[in-house]
Each structure stands twice: as C-alpha cells, then as structure tokens.
Amino acid sequence: MMRRRTTLLASCTTLALALGATACGGGPVAAGGGGKSLSGQTITVAGVWSGSEQKNFQKVLDAFTAKTGAKTQFVSTGDNVSTVVGSKIEGGNAPDVVMVPQVGVLQQFAKEGWLKPLSKTTEQSVDTNYASVWKKYGSVGDTLYGLYFKAAHKSTVWYSPDALDQAGVKPPTTYDAMLKAGHTVSDSGLAAFSVAGQDGWTLTDWFENIYLSQAGPEKYDALAAHQLKWTDPTVVEALTTLGKLFKDKQLMAGGQKGALNTDFPGSVEKVFGPKPEAGMVYEGDFVAGVAKDQFGKKIGQDANFFPFPAVDGGKAPVVSGGDAAVVLKDGKNQKAAMTFLEYLATPEAAAVWAGAGGFLSPNKKLDLASYSDDIARETAKSLVAAGDSVRFDMSDQAPAAFGGTKGAGEWKILQDFLRDPSNPKATAAELEKAAAKAYQG
C-alpha cells in the first residue's frame, strides 16, 4: 500500500520520438493540443499525495498548464479518499479529477454512479501504451473509468550491500535461499530482516508475493475476487511459508515483539539508519525514497534491491499498486478534465515526474532514460517487462473493511499471525470469516 509516498523532463528529442514529434509544444497532441486551447478554464484534482509526492505531481500539473493554458488546483484528501470525495459531492463542491489509490475504491465510485467513462482518445492510448492488465484494473465491466498514472513495484527486497558483503552472501533467487542467506547474515551479527508489523498493510504485501508465486496468478485472481475461499489449501500453504519467517527469532530484528512495534519508516531505519539492526527490509520501490530522503543513502551504492524471489518452484512475483485518475460526473469542468487524462496517458506527462524521482509509470512507451537514477530505471523496466503477469495488490482490491482498515480485517489477522504463527489453518479460517462479511457488505 504505502499510498502516501535532476532534470524535470527528458530531452526534447527523446519526448519527440516518443510522441511522434509533438511532445515539446509543436503541433497538437492527445493532451488537447498546443495553442493554449483551455485558457481561462480551471480543473481541480484531488488525491492522497502530500509532501514530496504532491510537489512532484504539481510539476505535472504545471506542464499541463504550460501546454493547454488551463489552470489547476490540487486538493489533498488524506488517506480516506472515498469519504472526502463523497462529502464534496454531497456539498456541491466535487473535484473534476480524483487520483484513486485502490481498485476497490474505483469500483465503489463507479457503482455509486460518480464516474464518467474515459474518452476514446484516452482508451486508445491505454490500449497502445499499457499492458492490458492496467486496463482491466481501471475498468468496471467493459467500461474504462480509471487511467493508471503512477504505479508501485511491490516485489522488491531492499538490502544494505555492506551487510550482505560482510556476511558473504549474494542476492538470492528463491525464497528458501533468501531465508538461508538471512541466517548467514544473522550469524554475522545483524538480524536478517526488519519487518514492519505495526503497519498491517506490509504483512498483506508479504502474503501476496508468496501467494502469487506459490499458488499462481489464476488462484491469486480468484482469491482477490473472493471467488476462492481463504480456507483453501493454497492459502494455508502460503501462510505456512510466511510463518517460517515469522517464527524464526534469528531472522527478524527484535523477534515478533520487535516487528509488531515497528512501523514502515522504522523498518527502513533499522536497515539504512545510523544504527543498523538488520540487513534487509521487504517492501515496494518507495523504500528507496525513505532511505534516500531520511537517511541520506545513495541508491544503488548504500542501498540496493533484488526481486522478491520465487517460492517453491513458482515464478518470481510482480505485485503492484497504483493511483488511477478518474473524472467525476459532478465536476464543474468535465471537458478540461477529460483533456487532462488524455495528457496523463502520454509518455510526455509521465516523463515529468519520472525525471523528478519517486515515481514509476506503467506506460511502456516512456523512455527509461527519463528516470532520474539507475535503480528507478531498473524497477520501472521490471514492472513494464512483467506485462500482463503483473497483479494488483490484493488487499487494495478488497472492500476496505477487509483489506484496508487499521486494527481490523486482514491487517489485524495477519498481525495476530505474526504474534503467533503456530496455526495457519486457524488463521485462514479467521481470514475467511472476515472476508465473507466484508464482501457480503
């Protein structure tokens, strides 16, 4: 999840090649054309971003203004997007565009009748520039409502090169080898992993990577839609695999108690902070931003990653998350809003944030040279290369009562499992009970 989380543009030549010689303000483009075609109009864009993410997204908004003349206003919603947007609609003050961080919320908005189907121009760009899985996650039924502009790569294990070098281990390619390497790291004086058990969403991400690799994409899709019960043997097997880590006191910094008292930023600090306690931390590509911004690490030198390894002979998983742009029916400027989404669907728009850092795009037409560092290029390349094998974060596809609420549902049950991983079958039963109630609701 982690939804909150130097050149600004690639060269004009690169963008012109990517966009058919229109990227740098020459002739009209899918974004609504040059010539300040939207001068005098204003669009309001709402999203969860704050801090550096909001600052970098503002650069995208400014680039759209420079191209079209339209003014933009960003409104930060905080994490509870659906509640904030719902209240704004009821108050007659709906934003024109919302950047939605969860598939489940996008589906909820569509079912409430809040969304406008995206334009044919945007849909054509998605068909041409994206793997079809991104269109699937942006659609409800056969209607495309959401354009995935910003993505996360949630199958990355981050490590201290010094810690692994000191232990004499290399990045592993299988889950068993990762645990074995962890024991070697532990023997050298550091715990293997820093686990952010205080934040339940990180535990869902651990489970999802194991499950996708071990059970395969078809079972993953069925479980995500609750067409497969959480009591299925594949779920019990994945929990058993995860439990091997949770019950091994050598592998986790501070053991189970320490993990349950560590939040996500704290888990990164335990690997990359001034007093390291562990050699590795699993989470998405956004770990790099924390390591760089808070602890001054040079990404690729002081902090690096390896892909989440394959489990029990399965394929290495690629789990993603992302923010989808949608247009609200009750917005005051739908035409300009549609033009903005046409712009977001271009490599030109993605290049603005890619150059600023802290961003991955699922747009396969974006030149990788647009990214600000080699590690971002590597993670972006991995995400795009995965194509239709990418699977969206399962908990983000679930109703919030099950997959997105602190102290409840999957988050709490997996925290309880971290505390006591002795009975995977009982944990699976608890997960099914909570899922059945949430999906029914």
Distinctive features:
signal, Sugar ABC transporter substrate-binding protein, transport, 2 domains, D-Maltodextrin-Binding Protein, domain 2, alpha/beta, 441 residues, single chain, globular
What is the strand and helix layout of this fold?
Blueprint: H1 12-19, E1 42-47, H2 51-68, E2 71-76, H3 81-90, E3 97-100, H4 103-111, E4 115-116, H5 120-129, H6 132-137, E5 139-140, E6 143-144, E7 147-153, E8 156-159, H7 161-167, H8 175-187, E9 191-193, H9 200-215, H10 217-224, H11 233-246, H12 255-260, H13 264-272, E10 278-282, H14 287-295, E11 304-307, E12 319-328, H15 334-344, H16 347-356, H17 374-385, E13 391-392, H18 394-397, H19 400-403, H20 409-419, H21 424-440
Parallel strand pairs: 1-2, 1-3, 9-10, 12-13
Antiparallel strand pairs: 3-12, 4-12, 5-6, 7-12, 8-10, 8-11
Helix pairs in contact: 2-16, 7-8, 9-10, 9-11, 9-20, 11-21, 13-14, 20-21
What does this 3D model show about the protein?
The structure is a single chain. This protein has two domains: 12-153 and 320-391, D-Maltodextrin-Binding Protein, domain 2, CATH 3.40.190.10; 156-317 and 403-440, Periplasmic binding protein-like II (D-Maltodextrin-Binding Protein, domain 2). Helix content is 48%, strand content 13%. It contains 21 helices and 13 strands. A hairpin with a 2-residue loop joins strand 5 and strand 6 (143-144). The radius of gyration is 22 Å and the shape is globular. It starts with 11 loop residues before the first helix and ends with a helix. InterPro entries: Bact_solute-bd_prot1, SBP. It comes from Streptomyces olivochromogenes. Belongs to the bacterial solute-binding protein 1 family. Residues 1-23 form the signal peptide.
